[in-house]
Design brief:
By secondary structure, the chain is an alpha+beta fold. 24% of the residues lie in helices and 25% in strands. The radius of gyration is 17 Å and the shape is globular. Nickel (II) ion binds at residues 120, 122, 206.
């Protein structure tokens, strides 16, 4: 996939980009089957890699916003998709020749019950002692509309610092984060067709609405970036220090039993 000069400039100025036809129709069908199987089998649950992004993630309670980290660990065939080469080409064109692919995750918004993913910056989830230049390629596996939870971006927000975040609803059991005390009236909705994608920088402020439609909204997200650089000053993300999400405990237990 060859980006135009205008597309590269748009990304650099706005911190996001919409691209058409990244994934071909046959691959969408194939990915959807894998995707639905991983959620149905609760892949990654025991390792803390499948959890409720927007709720306290209690056992036996239906998730408001099911998420799987590293789905390709549970379905390695995802790595062989033709769309991966196109995604890598996008990463290299936007971030340069030292950029690599950085893993994947999946966020499922169930029909009618899937809640919003509140405004956030992805970097707010990460280790604050590093500087990042990375992006996410957000790939819906069906049409993404305002009704089912397409992406919204705040243009130019990739140039802002990391704003104050907290766990969603100010509940430290919740993995998902939200920006505190801000609204973004200049945000832009990006409804796209199946096979299209959006790209956003690690600091771009973004959001997806609740799924009020009758179809599930499946999204697969691929990361890419240059190697993070250690900061020479202390930076802290206190919202992560106070988090007590059940997934962290499952992750610890799994690591202990593996070692
Ligand atoms: Ni995000």
């Amino acid at each position: 996939m060859q980006l135009t000069k205008d597309q590269i400039e748009f990304y650099e100025n706005n911190g996001y980009l919409v691209l058409r036809s990244l994934v071909k129709p046959d691959e969408i069908v194939w990915l959807r089957e894998i995707y639905d199987r991983l959620f149905a089998e609760r892949a990654g649950r025991e390792r803390g890699e499948q959890f409720d992004l927007a709720g306290p993630d209690e056992e036996g309670v239906e998730a408001k916003l099911p998420q799987i980290l590293n789905p390709s660990r549970y379905a390695p065939e995802i790595q062989n998709g033709r769309f991966q080469a196109a995604a890598f080409a996008i990463v290299r064109q936007l971030l340069g020749e030292t950029a690599e692919m950085l893993g994947d995750h999946a966020i499922f918004k169930p029909a009618r019950t899937g809640v919003e993913t509140p405004w956030h910056q992805d970097e707010a989830y990460w280790d604050p002692q590093f500087e990042y230049n990375s992006l996410s390629i957000w790939i819906p596996l069906q049409e993404a509309t305002i009704q089912n939870g397409c992406m919204w971006f705040v243009p130019g927000s990739h140039r802002s610092d990391i704003l104050i975040h907290r766990s969603i609803g100010n509940d430290p059991r919740v993995h998902g984060l939200e920006i505190v005390g801000r609204t973004f009236p200049d945000a832009v909705a990006c409804p796209i067709s199946a096979g299209d994608c959006t790209v956003h920088h690690n600091r771009t402020i973004h959001y997806t609405g609740p799924n009020v439609s009758d179809v599930p909204r499946r999204a697969l997200i691929l990361g890419g970036g240059t190697p993070p650089k250690r900061l020479n000053f202390e930076r802290r993300f206190p919202w992560n220090e106070i988090k007590v999400a059940p997934r962290q405990m499952r992750e610890q237990n799994a690591k202990q039993s593996e070692s």
